[in-house]
Amino acid sequence: MLQRSIPELVGMSSKSIINFLDAIEANKIEIHSLMIICNGKVITEGEFKPYNKELPHALYSLSKSFTSTAIGLAVSEGLISVEDKLIDLFPEDLPEDVSPNLASIRIKDLLTMSTGHEEDTLPFMLLEENPIKVFFSLPVKYKPSTHFMYHNGATYILAYILKKVTKLQLVDYLMPRLFEPLEIDKPYWEVSPHGINFGAYGLYLNIEDIAKFGLLYLNKGIYNQKRIISEAWITEATSKHVDNNTGGSEDWSQGYCYQFWRCRHNVYRADGAFGQYCVVLPQSNAVVAINSGIENMHIVLNLIWEHLLPAFSNNSLVENKIDYRILCEKCANLKHLPKRVSDREAIINVINDKVFTLEQNNVNLKIIVINFNENKLSLVDDRGKFDVHFGKGEWHYINSNFFNYFTNVYCSGTWLTEHTFIIEARVIETPFTYYLKFTFNDNELVLEYFSNLGFYNDKEIARIHGKAVL
After folding, report:
1. Top-level CATH class of 7-332?
2. pLDDT given at position 458
């Protein structure tokens, strides 16, 4: 259990944290939960309701840093070396013609995303029964260690290596070595079609778990006065090994480590898509952990540099009871409000509980019915019938896998115009919010089904026409 403290007692002003939270609000940043550690103590923690800081949250590529840690543990146990050649680890899967570039790929090159490939190999590997053979068959254009290319397939191969040398799933190997010492209970890690943990993504942890991981690295491998991983590995894993200055933003071009990123200000981080952060600030003796659902990941780091970084101190400050009370109240009242509430009685009377059949569509929705007396949307697709209850001006909790295979969902609905009703559904173990937008015109409707986020900027899930059953 992490220790808690008043910010000023460990060298941080409450006012600086208030300013950081105000900036998040002013910039309308979709933060879900956060935790700030300074000088070994938690000085701020919060959840933006309806999100729950106790529940695990999708980490996406922040998972990679846990895979890197597993490699470090396997190195310390003498099972592998970062200089091991990939072709020596999987000789049974080699092609007839092994190019010099392929022959020289080391575990280190997998860790540093510098295998020499020109594109991510993972999509190709997931399509075939033997992913190692697929990896070996793909062209290696550049000499390994000379060319950075962000590469999920490299991390997937690391997970395969760990499975081969430990005879354990990645999550099972880490359980007694990392998760249990960090007091992380029952971590969930998605399994690939090949039956192994993805490694590159798929891990779900809560915000305190992420903060503990950051604190372990900040303390050079020690947690609760117990060494978990060697200091030498921590230093090696978080040092720049390859130049990644490809014209991106500043904090994505400071150098790549072993599945960690270097940042400005001598800071490093683990991060994942849509705003999952574990930011380690060694010179400030601090960790900032954040879960969120955003597309512009740069803005959060910029706000950390602007409001938090200058305020960290190794010396205790004079306690400011007024600011601390304001901070506590602010953290207790963090929330994402549902969309505005309005009623349209005339059209409600016409469409209430009316059955609409839908044209053929890519999500196989067949029927929808909205009962405004019970605040309930009923949907039928090829899986069966789902009832989605929604609040009006408040979040209503439902347990449903209609939107996502995670089932903790908070819903709210409101009228946007005289003829347009929208339901907002937050799947709180993920960065995703889903929207069902219904536009009614006599006995016809158009259903727009979309999300707040999308890989490759693809947020629209479906646009479907329907007709009322008369």
Report:
1. alpha beta
2. 80
